[in-house]
Each structure stands twice: as structure tokens, then as C-alpha cells.
Specification:
three-stranded mixed sheet; six-stranded mixed sheet; mainly beta; about 180 residues
């Protein structure tokens, strides 16, 4: 789940839909202005293992998430962490959430576009699904992304622009990304 605020400033929780692309951007065509990638390979692990603490009335449990992208490449780079305030049934979900955070931090994009709204007139917002084709930013085919952050800008020289922080949509689902 993602949390943000609605137009009235109230807290909003929702599960984003990655199936419905709200906007498409292509390098060289408006409203696309620029796109830059951010890669952090140091945060990528082949195995993520979460452990619960052992208590006198409950045994410790664990779950290991295997990153097939690194394993397939012959990379062995494990890490582990303690899952706090969780019973044995929640360990798998906690580890998959941590894997999603790993994918979100290892590969993201900063996309600047003209205007503050999509073609339907809706403001760009956190959690919306967009597609991007930008060979200059190493996105060599049309790829779905999820908007993680939105910054609206206005200036005399550049007019209205929006900066969208894009992450892989699987970052919040605990699934392996389709593309990486």
C-alpha cells in the first residue's frame, strides 16, 4: 500500500494499479523535457533473509527472498535483517516488502515534463502508472513505471513543469520486476 494525501490534505491509503497507464512519455516528444537515471548497485542483494526474534513462548522464524537476476548472473551477495513486531506468518510479507524497497532504490528515474496534468486534465500524483521510452536515459523500450514522488514547478523562463520520480511498479508488490 502507498500512503499520500488527497486534494483536501487528508491521509489517503491505496494500492496502485499498474495495469492502467495514465500518461505516456517519449524522448523528443512533448510533454517530455528530460529524464535522468539513478542506479545504486550497492543496495542490490542476491538473498534477503528476515528473522523474527526468539522469545520464550515462540520459536524464531525466517524467510529468504531470492533475487533471480543476481543469482542467474552468478552473484552471491546475501544480507539479513531482524523483522520487528511480527509473528511467523508475517515474515514473508516483510521480506518481500524489503525486496521491493531494494528494487526501488537500485533503479529510479527523474523525469521532467511540461505542465502539471496528464492529457485528461488530472494532476500528476504519487502512485499513478506511466510509460516511458527514453533511450538517452537507458530505457530502450516502452516500460511501465510508477510515480513515487511529484514536484510541481513554475518559473518565468520554463513555465509550468513537473518532476516525476519514477520507480519500477513491482517495488510495492513484492514481485520481481519484469524488466531490470
Amino acid at each position: 500500500f502507498i500512503y499520500t494525501n488527497n486534494d483536501q490534505g487528508q491521509l489517503k491509503f491505496f494500492k496502485p494499479s499498474i495495469e492502467n497507464v495514465s500518461a505516456s512519455f517519449e524522448e523528443g516528444k512533448l510533454p517530455y523535457v528530460s529524464c535522468s537515471p539513478k542506479f545504486d548497485s550497492q543496495g542490490m542483494y542476491s538473498h534477503l533473509t528476515g528473522f523474527t526474534k526468539t522469545e520464550k513462548d515462540m520459536e524464531s522464524s525466517s524467510y529468504t527472498y531470492q533475487n533471480k537476476y543476481l543469482i542467474k548472473s552468478g552473484v552471491f551477495r546475501p544480507t539479513n535483517f531482524t523483522v520487528e513486531d511480527c509473528d511467523s506468518g508475517g515474515v514473508e510479507k516483510a521480506v518481500k516488502a524489503k525486496a521491493g524497497q531494494m528494487f526501488a532504490s537500485c533503479c529510479s528515474y527523474s523525469l521532467t515534463v511540461v505542465g502539471h496534468t496528464d492529457k485528461k486534465g488530472s494532476l500528476y500524483h504519487k502512485g499513478m502508472s506511466v510509460s516511458l521510452y527514453s533511450p538517452g536515459a537507458m530505457v530502450y523500450r516502452e516500460t511501465k513505471f510508477m510515480v513515487n514522488e511529484v514536484t510541481f514547478k513554475r518559473s518565468d523562463t520554463e513555465g509550468n513543469q513537473t518532476e516525476l520520480s519514477l520507480i519500477l511498479p513491482e517495488s510495492y508488490s513484492g514481485e520481481l520486476p519484469d524488466v531490470l
